[in-house]
Amino acid sequence: MTTAVSILPAPQLAALDESYRQAVARKRLRLMLAAAAAFAVLVIAAIGAEVNLRTLFTFFGNFVSYFDRILTLEDGTRVWSNPAEWFWGWRKWLWMLGETILISYVGTMIGAVFAFALNFFAAQNTSPAPWLRFAVRRLLEFARTVPGIVFALIFVIAFGLGPMAGVLAIAIHSTGALGKLFSEIVENADMKPIEGVRSTGGSWLSCMRFAVLPQVAAGYASYALLRFEINVREASVMGFVGAGGIGQELVVAIRKFYYSDVSAILVTIIVTVFIIDISTGWLRGRLFGKDARA
Amino acid sequence: MSQLPKPDREQLRAKYPDVFNRPASARLTMPAMIVGASAIFVVGLVDLDFSPAKLLSGLSQLGWITLMMIPPDPGPSLPAYLSALGETLSIAVLGTTIAAIAALPVSLLAARNIIPSGLLRLPVRRAFDSIRGVDTLIWALVWINVVGLGPFAGVLAIAVSDFGAFGKLFSEAIEAADKKQVEGIRASGGTALHEIRFGLMPQVLPVIAGQVLYFIESNTRSATIIGIVGAGGIGLQLAEQIRVLEWQKVSFLILMILIAVAAIDWISGKLRFAVIGQRAVA
């Protein structure tokens, strides 16, 4: 079956064509200008970052061969042909990995407790006073913006080398990140239960305890689990600055060119991160229903 | 004053047995979980050598350090710090852009609506996951071995680790795109490439642009820390000043980082607003 498509008479069509072309031309011009601006920014950035394409091309082979080397044992065979030799230090590495996970767990717990204590002051609908809200928000922002590893560098000097510095660094960073997320949950909470509690003469504290907390507790736990997951990654590099965990071993292996050790430790870290991702995802699904998974 | 009627407890009990007679297992899960979590916490504290004495002496040290940080003072090296900050921003912008350009074509391979067969899609996804599983700092160390110390290693480190993150985000954006426009192109006789170019890209590009801007922002933070292992930028200066205990310079550098991050935050917020409109900014 064929249907005739009606075509407008030429003069009418020409006018429409013209206005279409104009509209498109304006859009194209804006796009070209934006692209040119972006390109200029990139060129300036490339000069600033001392990008040297010749270095990249000369040494790109090194990048590939680096992976070739970290996948080769000392006797010249591939790592997977001899797993016992590849993972020769697995006892020590698993121990360090356990320490890494503990660092992130303890750090997340401390951070969650502090975030819990602070977030009601930072949320718009529950904060007792505007100046308090302002102060707490700035504090959380500071804790969140300064990277965890910078805190770790300073804490290593104050508390000495060891996992304690790593735990405290992670705790501070988590306080900042979780405090913000927690206060956002509180801001989304339903205000009617709070009015109900207040109308019976409850204090601010009992408003929080009996009206807000039951609404937000599940969200808190979900975010804390997510943070734990992120912190495991973060804790795996805390050892770079001497703050405990598997990072110490990894940085030694990379700097001293123990090639097969690098790949073995990396594989252990990646597998652990996978396992923790999947298990916390499962746990969140079980505890808070499918919606909380995202 | 009128008295409210006294509730009849027996009747309520009979009416809502689920509320009053919860099985012991349901009542005990929550306390058990809390006890378990705190037990692990205490074990962790012991295992990681926490002691009140250590904590107190550390805190007093920290107090001294904080006192010595005031007032922030760059000394004579302000120009060096400013150029280091510029280097950091360059690393963030360039690394993110390279990652985005490289990840866009590859992310098509990881999207369900483009590659229906799992055989090709799953390896690509696992590759993205593995790249993301390795921290940016580790990538920086690897690249330093390859191209030497300096900001270029930082650019490549950010590019590689963001490649993994972008691959996942882009493929999710592509999967969430509306099918109807693609079908429209196909119905009018377009090829598979036409479908991607005219059906998918107009839908996903604004989303992608928003994500790239957001990553530039968060990479400003990452770029400050990869300097600590020697990959250039302001992190290098920061780590050096911390090691030689020049606390006034340290606090000045931290302030600089905070201001730079806030500025980038503001700019990218404005740009995202321009690209994708108010709704998606939040």
In short:
The complex is a heterodimer of chains A (294) and B (282). By secondary structure, chain A is an all-alpha fold. Chain A is built from 11 helices and no strands.
Structure description:
Chain A has 11 helices and no strands. Chain A has helices spanning 10-48, 53-70, 83-86, 90-122, 130-145, 148-159, 163-187, 192-199, 204-238, 247-255, 259-288. The radius of gyration of chain A is 28 Å and the shape is flat. The mean pLDDT of chain A is 84. With 282 residues, chain B is mainly α. Chain B has 2 domains: 9-45; 81-281, MetI-like (MetI-like fold, Orthogonal Bundle), CATH 1.10.3720. Chain B is 80% helix and 0% strand. Chain B contains 13 helices and no strands. Chain B has helices at 9-15, 17-20, 24-47, 52-69, 78-109, 118-133, 136-147, 151-175, 179-187, 192-226, 234-243, 247-276, 278-281. Residues 278-282 of chain B have low confidence and may be disordered. Classes of the chains: A mainly alpha (294), B mainly alpha (282). Chains A and B meet through α1, α2, α4, α6 and α7 of A and α3, α4, α5, α6 and α7 of B.
Quickly give the CATH architecture of the largest domain in chain B: Orthogonal Bundle
Net shape of chain A:
flat
State the major sheet of chain B. Answer: none
The CATH topology label of the largest domain in chain B is MetI-like fold
- CATH architecture tag of the largest domain in chain A: Orthogonal Bundle
Subcellular location (chain A): Cell membrane
Keywords (chain A): Cell membrane, Membrane, Transmembrane, Transmembrane helix, Transport
Membrane topology (chain A): Multi-pass membrane protein
Organism (chain A): Bradyrhizobium australiense
